[in-house]
Amino acid sequence: MLIQGSKLDDFKTERKDLMPPLPMLYRLVPLLFYLSLLFLVVVGSLAMWTSQVSIKRFEGITLQTSRLKKEIETTKAARSALEQKIRESTDMEDWVLASMPLQPLIVGIVRSMEAGSNIVDLSLERDEDTPSQLKLALTLNAASDGQIEKTLDAVRKLDYREFSPTQSTIKGNFEYRASLLWSNPKSKIQTPQDRAKAIKTP
After folding, report:
1. Of the residues 17, 22, 88, 165, which has the fewest C-beta atoms closer than 10 A?
2. Structure pTM?
3. Are 155 and 105 in contact (CB under 8 A)?
4. Is 159 exposed, middle or buried (0-12, 13-18, 19+ CB in 10 A)?
5. What kind of fold does domain 103-190 have according to CATH?
6. Which of 135, 111, 115, 116 is nearest to 125 (CA)?
7. What is the bridge-based pairing of β-strands 118-126 and 133-141?
8. Which residues contact residue 166 at a Cβ distance below 8 angstroms, ignoring those fewer than 6 apart?
9. Dmax over Cα atoms in the chain, in whole Å?
10. For every one of its 202 residues, what pLDDT tens digit does the chain have, with 9 covering 90 and above?
11. Interior CA angle at 193 toward 120 and 89, to 5°?
12. Angstrom distance (rounded) from CA 199 to CA 192
């Protein structure tokens, strides 16, 4: 038996909605939620990309700094080695210049003798550590008191300067002891005598 559709509608009863429809603002909540998720994904991706770029940049700066430090250490080592060679060369030059032959000094002392003055004893000892320093021991049988000054003038003309001199007279002979220091005439370093002369000069 068939029942017509128009008759079935008679069995339906009208019912009221259980809850009122959502306001328009609440309907936007899901959309805002998904938009927030999308925003978080984009921001997180940008943050990760920025972090990776910063890490790579930091690693590059670290490598460059390490390389520069090694170059600086290498340069310092080369400079120290060069300065050491310069000091050794300077010391060798000073030693060679200071260890000049004693013949000119001996000849100068002998030629400074006046008539009637004789050299009783002459001794020159070189310091091994400081070849520019000599120990002079001179015994004279002088004809005049000015003989020692004339001899010292001859010594000074050879760029020697005397230090810690001592004088004595034994058995009529004049004994003179002093340390002689040779000064390079090209050097700008003044001896104590030169400084004293400079102070006295008006």
Report:
1. 17
2. 0.44
3. yes
4. middle
5. Alpha-Beta Plaits (3.30.70)
6. 135
7. antiparallel
8. 176, 177, 178
9. 178
10. 454 555 545 555 565 556 666 666 666 777 788 888 888 888 888 888 888 888 888 888 888 888 899 999 989 999 988 999 888 888 777 666 665 677 788 888 888 888 888 888 988 887 777 767 888 899 888 877 788 888 889 988 888 888 888 888 888 888 999 988 877 666 554 544 554 554 444 4
11. 90
12. 11
Residue given tokens 């050097």 in the structure block: 187
Quote helix, strand, coil % in the chain, to nearest 5.
Answer: 55, 20, 25
Q: Label residue 142 exposed, middle or buried (CB < 10 Å: 0-12, 13-18, 19+).
A: buried
Three-class SS state of 117: coil
Contact 164, 179 (CB under 8 A): yes
Residue-by-residue DSSP string for 6-50? HHHGGG------SSPPPPHHHHTHHHHHHHHHHHHHHHHHHHHHH
- Which helix (H) or strand (E) segment holds residue 169: the answer is strand 160-170
